[in-house]
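Office hours follow-up: a student asked to see two folded examples consecutively, so here they are.
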Amino acid sequence: MIPENCDMRFEVSTRCNYNCSICPRDKLTRKIETMSFGLFKTLFDKIIKETGQYDTLSFPGMGEPLLDKSLDKKIEYAKKKKKDLSALILTNGSLLTLERFRKFEDLGVASVRVSFYGSNSASYSKVHGVKNKMLFDKVRNNIEKIAQAKKHTKLLLTFNVVKGENEKCVEDWINIWEGKADLIEVWRPHNWVNGRVYRKVQDEKLRTCGRPRKGPLQIQVDGTVNMCCFDYDGKLTIGDLKKQSLEEIFSSKPFKKILKYHESGDFAGSGLICENCDQRNKDKSDVMVYNSKFNIEDRVKTISTTYSKVL
């Protein structure tokens, strides 16, 4: 079974120019690289030949996608091959100028989501792990210009509240961006399974996070397929799309093992990182602080690209 989702996610790079405090890049053992256009083309063609279920192409992952010099070429190729495809980009915004945003509009990109974790230079620099104090003004000014000039491509902004770093900026941040962006969201950071410790792993857990049956297709930078976007280091890799079909990957022993435990809800002895993942917390009242568009109780049960439900 291929999970019931319409989003194929391509991690086009594991390179990043930021060192965000909430990101476990310091624990990453996977290779730091960028996916070539040739590999992207091969994998994309393989997917759409096998199934027509995917109508969304998104670019998240453990790197900054705008560092990929062939990103525009990849988007252009994909949208020519599949006319109804919706393309989504997730970025830290450091390289997102008005000119670049207009290029994305020309390419037909549906939305650009920017992680922007501060309302002043000090808080921004601390959370994003950057030394250049001028970056905050640069990124903010670019986002302001984009907010005024955007036409077809939606601008989405995300803020993560980090205690001791930017928690005093939340109200100011909301006031600055409310009404300017198409969507603003304020979250409390998750644990990246075992990469960080922000949320308490509760005793009362859900049987499953829902991703084995309803999650997006997660393609890592080397062409392997991962079960979960929170698994930053590929511990839940279930196959290699360079060598296998989707049907083979989602019929494989690694996938069946994950699915088995998510169906039973008993992860004892499984050896899976899912056992103590905060995504299985039953009480999700502490996950989201603010949302300008969606009901928070509903939003925390969906993914951050297509907003399709996983729970």
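And the second, which I mentioned at the end of office hours:
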Amino acid sequence: MVKMSSIRTVLSLASTLDLEVEKMDVKIAFFHGDLEEKIYMKLLDGFHVEGKEDYVCRLRKSLYGLKQALRQWYKKFEFVMCEVRL
């Protein structure tokens, strides 16, 4: 979580330096987090193959709704940002 003091500092700097502030929303951000544990899900309706109705899928990337999704996305984001800085 970003602390309010961090946001205020950034907005203050932007105002002082006469910079534009923009925001964006990445709608598929959580799909980029790599899962560390094995998670399985049932196949969605329409994806069943005859004779394999009781098969499941193993997730390799996180999905919205998973408890791990936010944490895994943040770890991936932090890794990428640290790589860029070097």
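Two things to take away from it. The beta strands are 34-42, 56-61. The CA atoms of residues 10 and 21 lie 9 Å apart.
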